Amino acid sequence: MALSFEILARSSHSKARLGRVTTAHGSFDTPAFMPVGTQASIKGLLPPLVAATGSQICLANTYHLMLRPGSELVARRGGLHPFMGWPRPILTDSGGYQAFSMSDTNRISEDGVTFRSHIDGSRVHLTPERAIQIQNELGADIIMAFDDCPPALADTPTQEEYTKRLDASLERTIRWLERCKGAHARTADQSLFGIVQGGTDLSRRSRSAEQICSIDLPGYAIGGVAVGEGPEDIARVVAHTAPLLPEAKPRYLMGVGYERDIVAAVAAGVDMFDCVLPTRNGRNANAFTRHGQIRLRNAKYAEDDAPIDPSCDCLACSPAAHGWATADARPFARSYIRHLFQASEMLGPILVSLHNVRHFQRLMLDIRTAIREDAWLDLPNRWPVLVSSPDIDAVGGG
Is 216 among the catalytic positions? Predict the structure, then answer.
């Protein structure tokens, strides 16, 4: 089998479960957080540094790699694993999210989606068959079905139009999944996951889950909950949908998200997560801590000698733990990192991105420990951000 999933422990206080997924390129523990390497690179971070954060699997983007350098070129290099220097498991998305996010420049039909390339403006036609062919050539361990992700209600003119769009999405997504499964040519070493849609409408989520799960696949995902919904809607949809997915197979929540979103989803029984937040926010000097985000460009950090997060063991916060002894045994200070951003030095985004990825991996470690030790109710004590403001500086704290 291309993928196996073992459940090792369960929480008695929630639907959270501890597990392990095994692929052709090794195993990863669940619940798992996957850093996003859109262009076959976690921006600014060498693969050994990504691995040192505790990341066991990463994600790459089908749409972007289709355009540049091209999946055929990657295949000639032996696939994504040797191409990007990452020997561990990789997941690729299908391009379905780009169909949503670039809806103002694309045209969707029963056959597929026609994009206008963001690189040179050329027309690109992506079908379910082509999305699978590209992912077969890229060679990721887990590949995603090409789905139709509808916009959020807030981005739809009327409730009636939203309802019609949801129904069209559901029917198109199941038809496209059937075509994806038929086109999948590497079932021996690549695992295809189907994606449940339905927006914030729980009855349609139920219908989509029934349709998608009627097709036997190694795993299933919840899509369309990172397209503009608030945390309450995300939690409500995930709590309803996750239990509808097969118990014995990994469940993946796509594109989520903040700590509270992840913990709520784990409590509902979700096993896998990805999000661009750690590196995107890192490039903008926004650092995650157990108490909430801090904005390192703020003037109040100009003479702050503390590390980003005194409790963190990443290379930025605890360089000595990684074999680097600074002159006075200090970590990289907030004042220094702020200077790097003020001076547009590359090291600033690197250090904060590295810290942020480690932050999310520490969260996953504590989540897994809480499940293993059946101490789920103690998690908020270790992670105050789960019950307080996610942005310290926005509310005047520090």
Answer: no
Identify the H or E element spanning 334: helix 334-342
Tens-place pLDDT, residues 352-391: 999 999 999 999 999 999 999 999 999 999 999 999 888 8
Of 141, 261, 271, 274, which residue is the catalytic one? 274
The answer to whether residue 93 is catalytic is: yes
Indicate yes or no: pTM above 0.90: yes
Catalytic, out of 93, 141, 271, 304: 93
pLDDT at 303 over 50: yes
pLDDT score, position 228 = 84
* CA distances from residue 287 to 163, 327, 379 in whole angstroms, order as listed: 38, 25, 21
Here the tokens at position 224 are: 């369309």
* pLDDT for 396: 47
Q: Which phi-psi region, left, alpha or beta, contains residue 207 (left: φ > 0; alpha: ψ -120 to 50)?
A: alpha
Task: Put residue 198 in one of left, alpha, beta given phi > 0 → left and psi -120 to 50 → alpha.
Answer: left
The answer to whether 148 and 172 have CB atoms below 8 angstroms apart is yes
